[in-house]
Write a structure and sequence with these properties.
Three copies of one chain form a homotrimer.
Chain A: E1 3-8, H1 16-27, E2 32-37, H2 45-55, E3 64-68, E4 79-84, E5 87-92, H3 98-103, E6 107-112, H4 125-139, E7 147-149, E8 162-164, E9 167-175, E10 181-186, E11 194-197, E12 200-206, E13 217-221, E14 226-231, H5 236-240, E15 247-251
Parallel strand pairs in A: 1-2, 1-3, 3-5, 12-13
Antiparallel strand pairs in A: 4-5, 4-6, 6-7, 8-9, 9-10, 9-15, 10-14, 11-12, 11-15, 13-14
Helix pairs in contact in A: 1-4
Chain lengths: 261, 261, 261
Amino acid sequence: VTRVTLLTDFGTEDGYAAAMAGVVASASPDAVIDHASHAVAQGDVLGAALALSRYAGLYPEGTVHLVVVDPGVGTARRAIAARVDGRFYVAPDNGVLTRVLSEGTDRALVSIAVPDDLGVSPTFHGRDVFAPAAARLARGDALESLGSPLRDPVMLPLPEPERRGDCLKGEVIQVDRFGNLISNIPGRWLEKHMVQVAGMDAGPVRRTYADVAPGELVAVVGSLGLLEVSVRDGNAADRLGADRGAPVSADVPAGPDDGPR
Amino acid sequence: VTRVTLLTDFGTEDGYAAAMAGVVASASPDAVIDHASHAVAQGDVLGAALALSRYAGLYPEGTVHLVVVDPGVGTARRAIAARVDGRFYVAPDNGVLTRVLSEGTDRALVSIAVPDDLGVSPTFHGRDVFAPAAARLARGDALESLGSPLRDPVMLPLPEPERRGDCLKGEVIQVDRFGNLISNIPGRWLEKHMVQVAGMDAGPVRRTYADVAPGELVAVVGSLGLLEVSVRDGNAADRLGADRGAPVSADVPAGPDDGPR
Amino acid sequence: VTRVTLLTDFGTEDGYAAAMAGVVASASPDAVIDHASHAVAQGDVLGAALALSRYAGLYPEGTVHLVVVDPGVGTARRAIAARVDGRFYVAPDNGVLTRVLSEGTDRALVSIAVPDDLGVSPTFHGRDVFAPAAARLARGDALESLGSPLRDPVMLPLPEPERRGDCLKGEVIQVDRFGNLISNIPGRWLEKHMVQVAGMDAGPVRRTYADVAPGELVAVVGSLGLLEVSVRDGNAADRLGADRGAPVSADVPAGPDDGPR
């Protein structure tokens, strides 16, 4: 079974997402289609890049991940097909693969050759360019047969966290549906740190939400391996009025044996 | 692989959509179920008809498209099974197949024989009437075995566009999730026309959104082959306060060589 | 074909739901994954229990129903795997299986053995505990191999309807997406009853919505076999300002031959 996952900001109600699925089904009759999500916020390339990185590598090798969050449809932006660690990706070249590409080790990329005007809608590349390319990969066509090598994919300028000794500075890079504030600070940097987000103390890094009382702020290392701040049984984004870009910091307070002797 | 797609206005959260999928899975164990959408606006038969026409024909022949947007459930309205150009359809007879039927060339329709009261919920025909019929088609039962021939399916009175010389008049028939205003004016009628929608100039027909600056109105021939008006990187419906029924017109302005000599 | 259905309150946009699907796909390559819903209201265990009971038994035997609505993730709550009447269930032990367990006849339950900290995120058991267990069942592993027997699953204290002669008292236990008010009064108790909900008369129990005029209240026995109150072509919850817990009653009015003689 070859699986093709779809990730878009199309919603489902207008039939655009199903049109892509239909094209894949026709061109790759044995493919199993899995609608990962069509609920990405409109044009949110960074949000899609993070969502994709949550699941892409969990699918079996050979899976084709088709991603169409494409505010630049109709412009001259390129179309990418990629193979990263045994899985395939088809997407506009707008940075939506940033995390997948930066985390992967074995990578190959091509710029999808887009046929001339004939038959290709300049407003619906999802159906007319990306889905056919995904179907070809699902059928077993070689990546290299889809286009010419591409060496400089667009990468989103993800904010880099800073580390000066025990003092860590970063920011919120995503707010998920539960209102969890996901930062860019890697969990592996954290030891006995106390966390602050948007000017509020979130306490030490805990193992799980249940380590605080309901309604309290809690800092954990989340499922992406990044520092996250949540409210147990609540919504941290609403509570703190915090959104993408809100400052997150962590440091190790001086202990009783750290003072002058 | 036989695919069965589902299109409803049920949402997913109450389990109604999954109930239909379960019935199909039980009665047609090898069928691959594809949730096209359960997010059609409640009772929006026309919206469903347009969405369906975006994807139905893109699926392989033999696919069964199950459509339940059925504000008249429990009334005497008939239930339809149809074969159009090699694909199957199961739906209430309320016009939701209007576009598929009017665009198809090879058509056969039957009125699904609904068993007597026993075991059929008068409030959930999706589960009790339509899904079983779709499963039978997916299993390979002949269309004709599902009921008696039907020759007068309900067709929605879609507004007809007018054409007087170069002067085209139509209206918005759908607003999609992106706020694109989709008119009933066929793209093939358009040449050097200038477009107006809801009293605003939308300029000439462009090839793609990117032919105007961000934030500007742009007229294109969309993926349904119809004239659409959009705002690049924006929402035309919000911008113009326009909804279904808003007037759309197009004409060819007199050129410098068209004046008196 | 073994099907694995997913029911969560994760939404789809962040990639959490797809992460679970990816784990199932990798560990059980032939499984067909069906996203029943990811739109359960956040933390609504009762709503998920009712939704699940609408479709679980309609799927073929052998189906694995994976349910993750888990406000207690990270606490000491147990994880359940169950077999009920030939179908499998994997879920947190928080009552989300209440209806399935109470309606089933042939039941077996185990407490899923959760591996030690290593590799298990304390914030994403859907991916790290539940999905792997579902995949093992889909592959054919014996239920008993997943953990040790569990005899006291958490059951939600569903409100019990009362019956004194012809006088029935209950309450609204769910409001579905259409605003239908679903009560806990079994349809089989109803004969010539007149129904009241939230202090308003809803008339006799009708066969179907179409038995009243558009806009009127109508009481029917719905697809769960429970008394429901709707507004034809409208929204009963909005009309009555009624929510879960609103009182529902039914009685048989004295007829002309019931008076004193």
